[in-house]
Amino acid sequence: MSCAGGAALLLLVAPGVPARADETLRANSVCEAQALKARKAADPGLEIEIPAEFDKPFPTLMACESHDAAWDPDAPGPQQPIPFSHKHHSGAYQIDCLYCHSGTDRSRMAGVPSVELCMGCHAQFPAEYDELEGIRILKDYWSKQEPIPWVQIHRNPEHVKFQHQRHVNGGIACQTCHGPVQTMEKLYLVPDTKWWPWLLPTKKLEMGWCIQCHRANGASQDCATCHY
After folding, report:
1. pLDDT in tens, 88-136
2. Which of the chain's termini has less CB crowding within 10 Å, N or C?
3. Is a pLDDT exceeding 60 seen at residue 2?
């Protein structure tokens, strides 16, 4: 769905946008049809028209809304090549972080899901999901056998040797550094400022922020722990 389509969907689902008494709202896509059906359920007096080609169960309203929210250029965070919603996958469907980011419990680096892994799920979905632009983009990468060029959000300087597996196996939740991803449609660096006792601030991923976490969890504060 294009940005214009997303704006149309937002207009359709917005409860504060009434239709005229003599107006029949007509869907021009499956996503718009899902939005109109939701409005009709909330307001039985609403007149809607769903053409047969758009009267389908998929994609679902939740999928349409998550797709557009993750594609929103005004939302915090960089635009990714695909509008992937962590809220939709990790939140609504409770897909474990390690399923997509495999190897993170065994490697210093966090694993990035391959196109093959994504298609392992999405190849099973009905073709109607191709209405979503993000699904079409995903399938295009798959057909060309090209990796998805995700934009990195969380990055430490090269002289910081962050060990993902040490933290994961030590019981540190992914959300500690990455924020509540299960609630985020579009991923971004969630701000978090901690304060030293002498009222000096330290921001997320800065050295002082990491040291405070090490102190709180009884981890080593030796320089060689992270710098070697």
Report:
1. 999 999 999 999 999 999 999 998 999 999 999 999 999 999 999 999 9
2. C
3. no
State pTM to two decimals: 0.86
Rounded to an integer, what distance in angstroms lies between the CA atom of residue 99 and that of residue 87?
15
Residue 13 pLDDT > 60: no
| Contacts of range 4-10, beta carbons closer than 8 Å, 24 or more positions apart | 5/29, 5/31, 5/32, 5/68, 6/67, 6/68, 6/71, 6/72, 8/32, 9/35, 9/64, 9/65, 9/68, 10/68
Transcribe 103-171 into DSSP letters: TTTTSSSPP---HHHHHHHHTTS-GGGGGSHHHHHHHHHHHHT----PPP-----TT----HHHHHHTT
206 DSSP assignment = S
